[in-house]
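INTERNAL TRANSFER SHEET
From: sequence group
To: structure group
Subject: Membrane fusion protein, macrolide-specific efflux system

Please process the attached sequence and return the structure record in the designated field. Keep the field labels unchanged so the import script can parse them.
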Amino acid sequence: MTDSDTLKAPAKHRRRSRSSRRWLLLLVAVVLVAAGAAVYGRDLLFEPAPAAPRTVTAERGSLERTVTSLGTIKPRDYVDVGAQISGQISKLHVQIGDQVEQGDLLAELDARVQESKVVANRAKLADLSAQLRQRQSELQLARQQNKRNKRLFAAKAISEDEMQIGAASLAVAEASIESLKAQIDQAQATLDADLTSLGYAEIRAPMAGTVVSLDAVEGQTLNANQTAPIILQIADLDTMTVWAEVAEADVVLLKPGTALYFTTLGMPDREWYSIVRQVLPTPEVVNDVVLYNALIDIDNADRALMSEMTAQVFFVLDRAENLPLVPLSAISLAPEGGGPTVTVLKPDGTQERRPVEVRLSNRTMAAVASGLEGGEQVVLPAAGAAKAGGRTGGFGARL
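Return from structure group:
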């Protein structure tokens, strides 16, 4: 091998190395392009199908627009039975829960003081009656004497002075009679008052009902000189009254005769139906909140309702029956001030937007009077649209 061949060999080797690197880079580029194409093709091939719309079935039913409030149940008719005279309770004839009729004896007071007054006034009346009889006899004698004096004076048998004295005696006797009669009337009135007070020693039921409270015990002394002390309370539990507290913003919607129903805490599954009897004009202010009392009478023959129970009252302002019901969010307004519409999913999968007439709505549901049939599928707005508010947000206020 010559020296020139030895010098040429490295140059040839360098050319082969550069060629190999070019082919390697080209191969990497081809691989990368193929991988990108595969990924792109996979995305095109496996692109997810559009999500099915959310729907709800328009079921027929009833819808109410109501005003709610809390109330307290009380007896409609009740009476506080007190003592009209002072004295010690000698006997109580009833206990809480007893049924009484009007006129039944409830309690007795120690009546010895009243009895002594009656005895004294009867004696005084008897004395005045005896005095009256005596004065009546004296009056009869004075009349006879006056007649005799007139005859004697006509015969000039007595003087004029004697005749005038007789006439004056007659007048005095007549005046004495009138005075005694007035005293007798006064004594009789006093006796009648004492007899009435004596009758108050027996405390009787002023009405039929149930003894619901007992505030005194046997042996207790009652002082009726300043205020009438309460002994017990009788209530008619056959008819109860709900005192419902209604906010001033809602009370203008109520009037006598407004239909309603209510439940109690102890029986939430039972509903009582009635109407408003009266809305009291004077409010109660509780923590700067103005509340008006609506009175509701309810029959309680089964005694299921008891005093001071809490009632949740629903005043029915309007009611729609046997109409398709849909969520309020499913109703939107047509563009440019149009009326309410719903989107219906047809059996073939297509959607149809229809105008509807809304009969009634509350905060969550709407009753459709026309434009929609029961059993049809109504499309609900997407979650994003519901959050955004769209044109459904203010629709409830329009209904």
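Handover comment: Confidence is low (pLDDT under 50) at residues 386-399. Residues 3-45 form the longest helix (43 residues).
Transfer complete.
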